[in-house]
Write the structure tokens for this entry.
Amino acid sequence: ARRASDGRAGGVAPGGSGENLIGVAGVRRACDSLAPMKPAPERVLGWSAAAGFAVWCALSVAVHARWTTLGLDWGVQLNITGAFLLAPLVTTPLALLLSVPAGNRGSAAWKLAAWLQPAGAAAVLGSFFLAPGPAAAALALPWALMSVCAAATGLGRFLEHRFTLPEELAIDAGLAMLPVGAAWLLASRAGMEPMGFREPFVLLTAVHFHFAGLAATVIVGLTGRRLREWKSKSFPLYLALAAGVVLGVPLLAAGIASRTKFEAVAALILAFSLGGFCIFALFAIVPRLRGWPARVLLGLALLSGIWSMHYAGHYAAGIARGIVPPKYSIPKMASIHGLLNALGFSLCGLLAWVAAGPAGLSLTDKEKVIRATAEWPDASR
């Protein structure tokens, strides 16, 4: 790395970019030399996710040992709270890490979101140790501010590529939906009943937009990015499934708000789209992914997604019939479907894409390095 940094042995010329690579070092040494240059916000997000997971595990042990119940009765609200806290503590920083802007637009907002995320997550965690009210709501405000910065990042990304990269639209949409989840979290901590909804449905809506809204769409977008790199012939099928996932998230929220049969239709759209995507990716992506950790993690995520969408589909069918079987009731869905989505699909899926490639380099930087040398073939070969 030292020789690459001073321009010798085919390294990077001082102050140069990947375009200055000349020969024998190859892209691996270039990436190694670039690794220490990762911007601080990315390290912040990585360490925040790691520390957040440790905190979440410790809190889970404390709750299951009955040392604390966060002031909640032992029941559905506690299960939903436990699943939700994985979002601000772990999955959201991972999603932000993987959605680093490729160009200049949105990068300032992304950096601000990265710096705000750890403090916002800690404040959200603290808010759940207080009874719903003004104080708890005040602690949820930093997270709302962070989510606005994330949405601005999504807008900047969209302005960078417009509609030329449809797979990136999934990531942009996920970032744009995060403030909606933060708003429902704020309402939950304030003890509000927006549109007449009470707990646990207020917090469930926050869960929906943090996991299905952000984590799932980022996973879908990263999958499409890899398919484009591979010049996959199955890309049109991917686009159809991705569109169903991205549109299904707000459609389901609208269906729940309408209190009509449209909720069942929207739930089925999302269940079939996300379930179909998981089946598709299990065969189209996992076998070709580099590195066994990425393959194992993504395989676990996709299998969890299929199982989770099985429950979602049965729940939607029950709504359509007007009778939801006890097996698919809200308490059962919170403890099984919710945890499968949070721990299985979202967490393992995001970790898989972290393991699959360096998240520290933007697309633009990686393209420059790859084009500068022919010694490391791309994934399509």
In short: Residues 81 and 203 are 8 Å apart (CA to CA). Residues 1-37, 358-381 have pLDDT under 50 and may be disordered. Residues 1-38+361-381 form one domain.
